[in-house]
Amino acid sequence: MKKTRDKMRGLAPGTLVAPEGAVVPTGMHVICYDAGSLEETIVESVAELKRFRSSGRVLWVNLCGLGNTEMLAGLGALFGLHPLALEDTLTVRQRPKVEDYKENIFVVMRMLHFRGEIDTEQVSMFLGRDFVLTVQERPGDCFEPVRERLRNGGGQIRTQGADYLMYSLIDAVTDNYYPFLESLGEVVEQLEDEVVDRPTRQSVGKVHEVKRSLLQVRRAIWPLREAISTILRDESPLLGEVARVYLRDCYDHAVQVLDMVETYRELAGGLMDVYLSSLSNKMNEVMKVLTIIATIFIPMTFIAGIYGMNFDSMPELHQSWGYPAALGVMVAIAVFMLFVFRRMGWLGGKRED
Amino acid sequence: MKKTRDKMRGLAPGTLVAPEGAVVPTGMHVICYDAGSLEETIVESVAELKRFRSSGRVLWVNLCGLGNTEMLAGLGALFGLHPLALEDTLTVRQRPKVEDYKENIFVVMRMLHFRGEIDTEQVSMFLGRDFVLTVQERPGDCFEPVRERLRNGGGQIRTQGADYLMYSLIDAVTDNYYPFLESLGEVVEQLEDEVVDRPTRQSVGKVHEVKRSLLQVRRAIWPLREAISTILRDESPLLGEVARVYLRDCYDHAVQVLDMVETYRELAGGLMDVYLSSLSNKMNEVMKVLTIIATIFIPMTFIAGIYGMNFDSMPELHQSWGYPAALGVMVAIAVFMLFVFRRMGWLGGKRED
Amino acid sequence: MKKTRDKMRGLAPGTLVAPEGAVVPTGMHVICYDAGSLEETIVESVAELKRFRSSGRVLWVNLCGLGNTEMLAGLGALFGLHPLALEDTLTVRQRPKVEDYKENIFVVMRMLHFRGEIDTEQVSMFLGRDFVLTVQERPGDCFEPVRERLRNGGGQIRTQGADYLMYSLIDAVTDNYYPFLESLGEVVEQLEDEVVDRPTRQSVGKVHEVKRSLLQVRRAIWPLREAISTILRDESPLLGEVARVYLRDCYDHAVQVLDMVETYRELAGGLMDVYLSSLSNKMNEVMKVLTIIATIFIPMTFIAGIYGMNFDSMPELHQSWGYPAALGVMVAIAVFMLFVFRRMGWLGGKRED
Amino acid sequence: MKKTRDKMRGLAPGTLVAPEGAVVPTGMHVICYDAGSLEETIVESVAELKRFRSSGRVLWVNLCGLGNTEMLAGLGALFGLHPLALEDTLTVRQRPKVEDYKENIFVVMRMLHFRGEIDTEQVSMFLGRDFVLTVQERPGDCFEPVRERLRNGGGQIRTQGADYLMYSLIDAVTDNYYPFLESLGEVVEQLEDEVVDRPTRQSVGKVHEVKRSLLQVRRAIWPLREAISTILRDESPLLGEVARVYLRDCYDHAVQVLDMVETYRELAGGLMDVYLSSLSNKMNEVMKVLTIIATIFIPMTFIAGIYGMNFDSMPELHQSWGYPAALGVMVAIAVFMLFVFRRMGWLGGKRED
Amino acid sequence: MKKTRDKMRGLAPGTLVAPEGAVVPTGMHVICYDAGSLEETIVESVAELKRFRSSGRVLWVNLCGLGNTEMLAGLGALFGLHPLALEDTLTVRQRPKVEDYKENIFVVMRMLHFRGEIDTEQVSMFLGRDFVLTVQERPGDCFEPVRERLRNGGGQIRTQGADYLMYSLIDAVTDNYYPFLESLGEVVEQLEDEVVDRPTRQSVGKVHEVKRSLLQVRRAIWPLREAISTILRDESPLLGEVARVYLRDCYDHAVQVLDMVETYRELAGGLMDVYLSSLSNKMNEVMKVLTIIATIFIPMTFIAGIYGMNFDSMPELHQSWGYPAALGVMVAIAVFMLFVFRRMGWLGGKRED
After folding, report:
1. Which one in D92, D169, D281, E245 has a CA-CA gap of 20 to 30 Å to A4?
2. Which residues constitute the domain of residue E63?
3. Residue D49 resides in a domain
4. Which residue of B has its CA nearest to A346?
């Protein structure tokens, strides 16, 4: 995006510039349907799209890749899209949002992917009276179930209009968050066990990683919730009553995803404290071992040191009971120390501490 | 739920799929009453329910188990329920919410259970003009007191309509939170004593556990409060004036539960700090013991070491006062060290530190 | 309350059950007044109250103790109180709140007491057109100044109506928070000095205790502020213009109390950090002492150890300068070490660290 | 204030009681002006004020000291002030606020002073149609620039009414916050350097102190911002269009002060963490010195100890290479240990750690 | 600013005083354009500007430097600017804001610069019906792209009015935040790696520094977002429909910048915890080394000490197996200790801990 921004600085707003390294789309995937019929095809130029527009059927055009700005400009002209919306489509770090441009509604969402770590891809969507245009960064999406439902003709999707199609697509994106959250939830639970029972140095990195991923998901879903709420409050005539009811359900899903994100964030946040306390506990244990050994042996070694002195007149040295007595004193010291430590609860540390 | 979601992905919204491992209900528990009469029975098919509907009495149907989607679909058809509401009924990780579908109001709540740890069960409720339909995940609920009041005919429950019954059921769920919160409150108080007075390694796990449980309760009660507030603001004609007043009381209960949850959360949050400081204190004590022992004996052992050297010309060694003098110096060092430690307040550590 | 709740579960809402261990009131304290006259008496039955009601004067009935549910029911009947309000009166862990039951306004407040630690007592209040009914858990309250003003007839209290009396009582409760907060404020200031200058192990317990007390006060005053604000927004005809102006002042007091609570909470919160840093400082000091002693004496003891070896051919042992040289090396090591520690700023630790 | 409150408890609201130790004012400072003339004088009784009131000019009365309640009551009567406002004037721990009493507007602000630590003084202000009355706790204020502008007749202050004077006074109080904040900002920056580079035990006390001062300033400015916003929203006819525009500017200043307070609070909050980490770093360093010395010398001392044993048959003792070999082993151990520590990066600790 | 404020205290509001050390502008940069023509020049006095005003074209005057208050006053008179706005222009620590002075709109923004650390410069902007006046503190800005677009005549900038020019300038400032945020984001990511993998003492200073910079950016962008939102809500006729749509896009950019700031702040906040845990880990490691060495050698040294004693009757000393046996016991102790440490997982610390 940095490059994009750099390139774009100095250009008039609405000038279309493809982001660095954008995928060049080879064609547009078109589904055109009404209750009775469905036509699915790949078209390669905007001109071919025209015949679908006047058919009275719902038209869904899906473009995978932002590398062909002319094609996008052509789509903009065909469907009457606002230049700013087209520019946003190409600026791939948009926050999810909804813009109502009277003749059409522009929706930006972020689709989750997993490539080593959780990553998000921008999906732009335009809803008109009888069409939906979706633009993705790359091939590969979570819309297949919707396509399947369209092909099968089950449910009401074929009998409803473009607004219901838009709902279905937003819902597909939202539903796609669940498996990610569930696996993040599992990671959090696993980290809870790890951090409480056997914390390692890697734990803290993992906790940070999961917090980062949750932040990522939150940045994608929080504004999406806001955006759906905005559509619902909006009086746009493009959105029928039925689609509104279903979108309200979709809003509930977004709220629920957010609720899960917040719960996991809170749990992950608490783990850091647990980890720190667990480090302190380990340090305590190490120090206890050192202290026990040192405080038992240092006085004994001192006794030994005394009788290792070479003074001429050390009467004890010449008594036959001298050696056993010295040993006895040492043992007595050791026993006394052990007794003190036991009373302080330092021995059997595992039970008490 | 993961499985459910996976199975559901690709299906039209409103398609009814039972969650994995759902309990298959053996029948529906029916109570049909008016001020003068009450009929309580178990029916096995939706068809049998029909005769109750036209009786002019209030009908309460309770279904325990989500395993029979046909029965649920039948109930949906009989009572005119919205497909999305039925779908939500089967998606068992819903947040508490209220949806007003004009002809009926759909309420989702979460009932607390204790199975080793605090767990929640989804209760869906539909309120129509003259019926209440409740759907639980499993047998075993907190509605028994309501049934008892219905059977006894005490209070106004029999003379009021279905809306009052709904209030009674919501109130039963809310009331059910108190014992859980009280036991969590006791755990928190007990942990406070434990952490301040005799913290063990298990304490931190327990604190984390109680925070987790409180988070669980909060996730269940926070949206319920919102939901009740939504019903109250709502102008739905299904809800009479009397039920509204009582529901307002129920809202107060939810607010109070939330207040308790927040208080306990705050106290539990502070415990982690107390625990960490208590660990530091223990470490300080361990280190002091080590330091006292080491700083007393190391210099003395050094003296002993000097007179253990084998130099030919060490005049002190051959004096008769040599040995007592060496011992005297050692004792002097020990006494001086002890004096220094006493002044630094390290001895009698229990009183000062 | 636990018991109460347990007992109540299964009862119709509005059923009056005295809380466990409730004080049985021996009578009701009655003050009936107008601008010109005041009658103060103790009545023992609700029946006796009736003659005061039709007197055209303002009637204040004060009931101390919740143990007599029949008396309460009688009062409910006499003054036309809502069963839910009466139930709330007996449920002694209510949050402060205001309910407008058209013919009367129901207010719940919490009075602070000090019994070893800060404790709260529920005060319920009903305002009607010409009466105020107050219900306390126990004898002993903060209303005496109001009674005194009524008896003296000073100010406008006798010339105003029941609404002004209600204001005076709410104000008395709010004013009562100040001494508690001031003593908590003193505790916080004292803890600040203690924690910075001479932290002991007890400090952390005290900090936790004061945070707990502040939480307690906050739980009582926060909803009271909300409640007063609700009365003020409310259009209830029971509340005259004069009482409204005074109540607004009372609202300011509640806001100010809350402001003090929040300030003390923030200060107390910061103390924990200060305490932890102070523990670390002490540990640092202990470790420095150990390290200084050990690093000075360990090398010297090693030198002594070398010349304590019994090898046949150790030429130094037989030189007359051997012993003084060995001692000289030891002193040199000690001096060098002390020099290093001085440069590292470890000596004179009190000034630097 | 404690005393005040204690004295006041039991008094009717609106009874005027001077706070303990209040300064007894010797007179009132009066400035009476219009575009063409200005009269400045000290009057000693309220009676003398009367002649200024009917002059058609703007009258500013400034009273320094709360010790003369009769004078205040007289002012109240003269200017038609509400008893509650007068009571608030004497209760010197009010939060900043604005009360609109129809015929006049009552403003409470807090002026900052520096007496060893940051302290606040209450300034009460009444705005009428043609007068402003200000009441301070003590002589000494930040209004001198306003007086100077009045005397000079520069700007529009003399041509505008009492509302513009009130704006000028509020603005003078707000402007007075800047130097305090700037010096607090400098303290924070200085503490940042101190804590990162050479933290001492005093640092934590200073950080706590600066947080406390910022809390103090925040308590004074936060409600003032609210209060000014309330005046602006208010439709009071006492406030003309011009004064409103200027007051909006004053509101911006308050917001900016608050913004600075919050920034410094956040920075000061972070310093505690930095300090704790810096303590840990120092401890680490101390421990490393101890560990390096101990782990080098303990094994060497052990070798020396072995050859200090008095066994009859220790062949090495009688070899001529015995002593050099033992010394060689010791040196080898020392070199090996140093090599290990260098690889672990413990030596040259200053560069790495 | 301190000086400025000090100088200003006592002056009437609206008096123009240049801030200390302000740059004295050498002239004003003027661009005057309509769809067909563009004139770009430097003028040195306000008088020369007059001829541009009546030209019916859009006039953009840019002043770099606040050192010439007369020029500014002249501009104020020419364009009819409010004295308070001119004063704000000279008070260079304003928060971003928008003031609607009916005949013109006054906007304050902060432009980011990098001079060693992130610094902000105030840009004031006045929008009239047919002019835009921008005032900067110093030469050097981010408006060059806008100038370029004007000169090139590309896009709609030349065909739209002054409002569109204002939008373009606000957008240029907002766009300018991205590279700063991106470099801050890279610093945060780099610090994440550093703190988790190889934390040094400098890390904590860097984390604090980046938090400080983010706070700086946040202080600049947060109120700008509010300000743009205020313009959009405002009904000012100075702002046409087209500019409004574009400004909404600009608002989205501000929200996105803020979103990035908050994300980085959260990540940076978490780094402190990670760093502290990493310090604890290092301490643990140091202590383990010390403990392992000490607990192995102390007992062995004690054994050596025993047989270094000079008692006459120590039978073991005279046995030929004495010496090997003593060595054997020592080795046995060492092996046992190593075994215990291995079982406690202290050896191979890198893998486990």
Report:
1. E245
2. 1-157
3. yes
4. B286
CA distance E165 to E146: 8
CB pairs < 8 Å spanning A and B? 155
Q: How buried is residue B343: exposed, middle or buried, by Cβ count under 10 Å (0-12/13-18/19+)? A: exposed
Best mutation target among E101, E283, E284, E289 (most D Cβ atoms within 10 Å) is E289
- Asked whether residue E211 is domain-assigned, the answer is no
Nearest to C302 among D1, D6, D301 (CB): D301
CA distance linking residue E207 with residue E188, whole number of Å: 8
Name every chain E residue with its beta carbon within 8 A of the beta carbon of A11.
145, 149, 155
Residue C347 falls within a domain, yes or no?
yes
Contact A231, A239 (CB under 8 A): yes
Task: Answer with the one of E141, E157, E173 that is the final residue of a domain.
Answer: E157
- Residues E108, E92 contacting (CB under 8 angstroms): no
Overall residue count recorded for chain E in this entry: 353
Non-local (6+) Cβ contacts of B310 within 8 A are A310, C307, C308, C309, C310, C314, C317
Q: What letter represents residue E307's amino acid?
A: Y
Q: What is the DSSP code string of C245-308?
A: HHHHHHHHHHHHHHHHHHHHHHHHHHHHHHHHHHHHHHHHHHHHHHHHHHHHHHHHHHHHHHTT
User: In terms of residues, how long is chain D?
Assistant: 353
Interacting residues of D212 by C-beta distance below 8 A, sequence separation 6+: C267, D117
List the beta bridge partners of residue C156.
none
Q: Under the phi-then-psi rule, with left for phi > 0, alpha for psi from -120 to 50, and beta for the rest, what region is E116?
A: left
The answer to whether residues B143 and B289 belong to one domain is: no
CA distance D232 to D247: 8
**Rounded Cα gap, residues B187 and B192, in angstroms:** 9
Domain count, chain E: 2
Task: Please say whether the beta carbons of E237 and E129 come within 8 A.
Answer: no
Distance of alpha carbon B188 from alpha carbon B264, whole angstroms? 7
- Cβ of C308 and B312 within 8 Å? no
Inter-residue contact E210 to E188 (CB < 8 Å): yes
Q: What is the pLDDT of residue D285?
A: 84
For the CA atoms of chain B, what is the radius of gyration?
35
Residue that finishes a domain, picked among E157, E180, E204: E157
Residues B121-169 have pLDDT tens digits of 999 999 999 999 999 999 888 899 899 989 988 778 888 899 999 999 9
- For chain C, the residue count is 353
Cα-only R_g, chain C: 35
Contact across the interface for D5 and C270, Cβ inside 8 Å: no
E62 within some domain = yes
Q: Tell me the CATH number at D340.
A: 1.20.58.340
Q: Has residue D22 got a pLDDT over 60? A: yes
Neighbours of C224 (CB within 10 A): 27
| ipTM surpasses cut 0.95 | no
Tell me, what CATH number does C74's domain have? 3.30.460.20
Residue type present at position D172: A
Closest to A104 (Cα-Cα) out of A234, A229, A225: A234
Q: How many CA atoms lie within 13 A of B185 on its CB side?
A: 15
> Which residue type is seen at A162?
A
Which of these, D239, B352, C87, B101, lies nearest to B343 by C-alpha position?
B352
Cα separation of B223 and B219, whole Å? Answer: 7
One-letter identity of residue B325: A
Q: What single-letter amino acid sits at C67?
A: G
Asked whether residue B226 carries a pLDDT value surpassing 70, the answer given is: yes
Whole-angstrom Cα distance, residue C165 to residue A74? Answer: 76
pTM, whole model, 2 decimals? 0.83
DSSP D128: -
CA quadruple B86, B87, B89, B95: dihedral sign? negative
B contacts of A278 (beta carbons < 8 Å): 204
**pLDDT for B176 beyond 80:** yes
The rounded distance, in Å, linking the Cα atoms of E256 and E241 is 23
